[in-house]
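I'll show a typical protein example:
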Amino acid sequence: MTRDLGPDPPGTAVADHYERWPFPGVVHGSREGVVLVRRLARWLERRPGAPMRRVLDAGCGTGHTTVALARRLPSVEFVGVDVSSAALDAARAQAAAAGLDRIRFVRADVRDLPDSLGTFDGVLALGVLHHVPERDAALAHLLTHLVEGGRMVLWLYGRHGRAAHALNQRLIALLVDGSATDDARIAVAQALLRESGGRFIEGSGVYTPRGSGPEAVEWLLEHPAWLADQMFPAYERPVTLEEIFTLFDAHALEFDHWFGVSADVPRWLEEPELRRRLERLPLRKRLLAIECLLLRPPYYLVSGRRPPPRERGVP
C-alpha cells in the first residue's frame, strides 16, 4: 500500500522515511533474527563450486544482519549499501564495536549502485524490494553486480500474510491527512495500539521481537521506527509466490530455495489422497500448493542462482 506522497516521487519518499526512521534501529535479539542469520550463513557457506568471497547486502539498514553474518563468516568480505545516512551511521558504529574491518558501508540507491563496488558472489536484498517502486529495474540492476553462478537472496513481504497490515495502513491514511507530518502519523499509530492493546497485535499480524500481548504493545510504543515501518511505510508492495516465480523468470534467475519451507509432502499432509496428488505436482506447483497450506505466509525468504550464459542457451 502507498500513502499520498504529493509531488515527490515514491523513491524519494522511501529514502526520506528511512532517514527519519532508520530500521531496525535496535539490537533486539529476536528468535526470528537469530534463525535468519543462521540460515543465511549456512547458505553462504555451502555455495557449490568456488567459495563465497564477497557479499553485497543491498538495503542493509542499520547493519544488524550484515554484522551478524560477518561475525559468523570471517573469510567473507561484506559491503552494505543503503539510502539512509542515519542507518549507515548506526551500521558503521556496530561494525566498529564488533571489531570488524571486513565490512564497508556505502550510501547508495539499490537502483543505481556505483560501478566501483564491483561484482559479488552473493547479493542479499532483505526486506528491500517491496519498498522500491521500480522493483524490476532495481532487481535487474542488482544482478549486474552478481557474478555468473552467483546466488541472490530476497526477503519479500507476503501479500496473503500482510492483508491485516494493509487494512491498518488504510486506517492510518483515513485518519491522518496525506500532508500530515510523520509525528502525527506515529501519534495516531500509537493511539491505535493503546486502544486495541494485545488484541491489535494478536489479530493484525504486526510483528514485534517480543511476540504479542501487553509486552509487545509496550515495546512497539517505545520503538517508533518499527511502528512506522509497519503502519505507514512510504511504499509497500507485497507479493505472492507465483509473482516471485514470474520475477525470477523475467530476470533469468534460477529458483533455488524457499528458506524454512520443505517440499517434502509428508511434512504437510496426512490424507493419502491429498498426499498422492501433491507428490505428483512438479516442484513449483507443489510449492504453490504448500503456500496455500501455510494459509498466510507473512513473508518469503527465497534464493535464486544466476546461471552462466551457456546454461541459458546463450552462445
Summary: The first strand starts at residue 54 and ends at 58.
